[in-house]
Amino acid sequence: MTDLTPIVHSSLGAGRTLMGDSLGFHIMFALLGVGLPLLISLAELIGILKQDDEWYATARRWSFAMGTLFVIGGISGMIISFQLSLLWPAFMAIAGQVIGLPFFLEGFAFFIEAIFLGIYLFSWDRFGTWTHWLCSLPLVIGSASSAFFITTANAFMNSPQGFTLSNGVVSDIHPWKAMFNPAVPYETSHSILAYYLTSALAVASIYALLMLRSEVRTNAAKFAYYKKIVSFLMMLALGFVAITGILGDLSGKYIAENEPIKFAAAESLFHTQAYAPLAIGGVLHGASLVGAIEIPGMLSLLSFGSASTVVRGLDAFDPSQWPPLFIHYPLDLMIAIGVAIGGICILFAFLFYITRLRAWAFSRPMLSLIVIAGPLSFIAVECGWMVTEIGRQPYVIRGIMTTEQAFTTSPNVTTFGYIFPSLYMVLFAVAYWVLRRHYKKPFVMQKYFSGVLPEAGNPTALDKRPDEQLPTSL
Amino acid sequence: MMISAPEIAYGIACVFLFLYLVLSSIEFGAAFYMLLPESILERSTIRTYVNPIWETTNIFLVFFAMMIFSCFPRAVPTLSLLLFPIVEVALVFFVLRILGILGLFYGDSGKLAWRLLFFVGSWGAALVLSGFYHVVVTGTRMSLPPDILTTSLILLVISTMLLLSSTFFLMFTSRHRFHPYLARLGYVSLLTWYGAAALYLIGPFRDAPYMLDHLTAATNGFIAVTLVTCAIPVCIHKRYFATGFASSVVAFAMLFFGSAYMHLPYLVYPAMTIVDAFTSAAIFHAILISGAVGALFLIPALYLLYALFGVTQTAAELIE
Asked: What is the CATH number of the domain that holds B233?
């Protein structure tokens, strides 16, 4: 019989790191799994409505990147679903009884997404254009639903409700109330919009990088095609960044009201006060922030709508309940990136819509800014999740169960804490290799289903017809 | 006799696991065939099977896990402790398998390294996960030297993968040169499977005496499995490949669901029964309702995938 006696939680740090690494890796691919279906569906729709082969071919080319990234997102998601139970069994014992429903629904949404991904990828030449486009809708809805359901479970961890816990026994359970907890509207909308924004910027950033090449800048037809794509993506990004910013502000107000310890730690507000200052930047030294730019009253104003409102600082709470204070850094970084991205999008739109300045929208400096915006947006998403997750510490379910209580008593966590991050690096490298290879030799998968390589958007076909000026690389 | 809510949840979880085992056995068998030389293998047809399906296959395993921790959450601490190294190692193999799939199918490279990764990842995951049954039946992990149950599980996993995949690809492939290899493999794996199945039924009786209560049912069930098993070589010989594959699935289903039935009332012997581990009625009802609504979308979607897959097969034959 295996000894079930608990051992000391000596590997809690390794467990946290392993979970953090897994989530950090997964989110990069998961967000593209949410964002790319929308971009592809829109590109295909434009192609159909305008009868523009370039848009149609673009959607077709992006779809294979989506397929590859979905594979990585799928396996990293599977790892997380198992590691939740393996690393945090006490948490799952409660979560399963109260918030098991969204986990189950997420599985359904993912299933729909997986089925229609297969259908969408391999039916370009089998269905009519409208039928094929309709197949993209379950992908868009399935991926967004999947993100929505899993985020409701996370929102529950921040804002638990819908059950009573007495002496370790869960009773009076209301699954729908637990699922639609107060944090849901803020967390789900802010994160899903951020995924759309990041996906748009990621793709725009790749095209902008290509447009910096002399080979593209000297090819008028190709440059015009890339301009069309970048303009479309940057206009989408402008819309998304505006909405994400508004939702981020609402989310901040919600956290200030309902998760005051997280708010105080993230804003590095150590003392309860009226006219609370907004601290930007700075370096933490113990329980003080040095060198920050402080705007008096701004934190009170932003979070509660009045500069005179008293905002609770960390001194209002037991220090044993404080989250790690360094979450101030990711919060600042996320906001700084958000503002920078907003600025880049506005600048692009301004240059693009003023006819005599339009050439500047595709100048090297502007394109360089777009190239930088792509990776920055990924960093912002990672920072956002760091604030959410680390800011909830020491709890896994806020006010109910600490992370330490939820942690497994199994040995060997540290060993796997080294193995999985190494595997993620390999997966990352192989994904990069596959995508590079794919865009040099596209549609190879489709060949197995139709027996022929499609010509539209296929560089192999274009090489044989050099006089035609269609896109030749992503 | 009324079926209780925990029994319904247990049954649904078993159905998900069964679907995963059947589909993954075909895929894992494909990983083995991909190691064969191109002159024998009908590689392109096997690729068409693995490509669109594999993500759908994995989801059944995820559904099974979801059912366990959402319907039997009180068993999670016990299972987690016992299964920690098993599942973590299996996940490592799953990642290796994905690396192989990426290189082979998405990277369009037939290099041996990718094929080996696909094979090692697939078979490694399958063999490691066979430890799951050992844990739930005996409350202990597999150990060395292997006991009867461990030996039978390892043999059973290998022979099930080969039996289901060989009968499936006999039906699915069309190249006559490939068929004799598959048929011989089918016969050998069938013999091994039958022996392993007998051991597999005897194994738990030593470590899990509660199963003796089901001795009569087990005996009758095994007679039925024997009859179905006898039909498989006949079907292969007569070239009724679809019936041969169906018979293999039925034989495996009888063994799987029979042993799942014999395992009742335990979820993890001897620590936890399905009633002790069961979730709240509220969650179970919510899951049932949402599952029924979800099925309304899933079933047509799966049919559409199947329809497309059928067309695909025809296309693959045309290429050939």
From this structure: 1.20.1630
